[in-house]
Design a protein that fits this description.
Blueprint (H helix, E strand, L loop, with lengths): L6 E5 L8 H12 L3 E9 L8 H15 L2 H11 L2 E9 L1 H9 L4 E6 L12 H6 L6 E5 L10 E6 L3 H16 L2 E6 L15 H7 L5 E4 L6 H11 L4 E5 L14 H8 L4 E4 L1
Parallel strand pairs: 1-2, 1-4, 2-3, 4-5, 6-7, 6-9, 7-8, 9-10
Antiparallel strand pairs: 5-10
Helix pairs in contact: 8-9
């Protein structure tokens, strides 16, 4: 039985061939025999489009973006994968979120090295909260490969966490070690929603996981990161905060901390 091909998008931006993001995206696509679309967003804001100079500059930027197609297809050829190149004009956050909806995962760079950049306000993080597909964010301080061999799941029983784990399933199946930090609170019978059967779900998919309780922590983000480093994780999987914030539970406050400080790739969903 043939398995469906994974459809990945990498938000290339200004990344060059030496970037961990592009190396990681190409390597991930090769290992999973995925289709990888290189995406170049061409920012276009309605308030500026009435000015002739702005329209000229926009057209030139779009031409430059389209001209990168040959370069990208050569990267795919050298990596031995199928891929395509798209240059899309539009409001970056909305455009990326919309385009992501036909992808299984969107890969992008997470700006960590700039201490003045507010968490969650970069292009790709904002797209995630604009109801995009799950995103795999590679910190700009990450210099390793995107092997996803040792995966830490930050679990709190929320719908966002479940979406993240489902999106990570192909990666979890090929991981050499998986650990679940279980921060789900005890359900109150007849009052709280029933617990999701994550342990059974993982077992059903042939994934052996270590389990460790994760008690409620005031500084959950830092503690998660410390646990990930102790596990030598090269990927953390977790749900991002929801719009209502009602499903955050233990790990909700961790999202902002990790968007500011993470030094390993994050697979987030909401």
């Amino acid at each position: 039985m043939n398995h469906p091909m994974l459809d990945l998008i990498v938000n290339v931006g200004k990344a060059g061939e030496d970037s961990a993001l592009l190396r990681g995206a190409l390597g991930l696509a090769r290992r999973h025999q995925a289709f990888l679309t290189g995406l170049q967003l061409v920012p276009a804001y309605p308030t500026l489009m009435a000015e002739n100079d702005s329209m000229t500059e926009l057209a030139a930027a779009e031409d430059r973006a389209k001209a990168r197609r040959a370069w990208w297809l050569e990267q795919c050829r050298k990596a031995g994968i199928a891929g395509d190149w798209e240059a899309i004009r539009g409001i970056p956050v909305d455009t990326l979120a919309r385009r992501s909806r036909l992808a299984d995962l969107v890969l992008g760079e997470l700006p960590i090295s700039d201490p003045d950049a507010p968490a969650g306000f970069d292009e790709i993080s904002r797209a995630l909260f604009a109801e995009a597909s799950p995103m795999l964010l590679v910190p700009d301080v990450w210099h390793g490969d995107l092997l996803c061999e040792r995966v830490l799941i930050a679990w709190n029983g929320s719908g966002e966490a479940a979406q993240a784990v489902k999106a990570a399933l192909p990666l979890l199946k090929q991981a050499t070690a998986v650990k679940v930090l279980d921060g789900e609170r005890t359900a109150l019978s007849g009052i709280s929603p029933p617990r999701l059967p994550l342990r059974e779900w993982l077992e059903r998919h042939g994934i052996e996981a270590q389990w460790q309780p994760f008690p409620s922590e005031h500084d959950a983000g830092r503690e998660l990161h410390d646990q990930a480093k102790a596990f030598h994780a090269d990927l953390m999987v977790m749900g991002a905060w929801g719009r209502s914030r009602l499903s955050e539970l233990v790990l909700g406050g961790a999202t902002r901390w990790l968007l500011e400080h993470a030094t390993l790739p994050l697979l987030l969903a909401r």
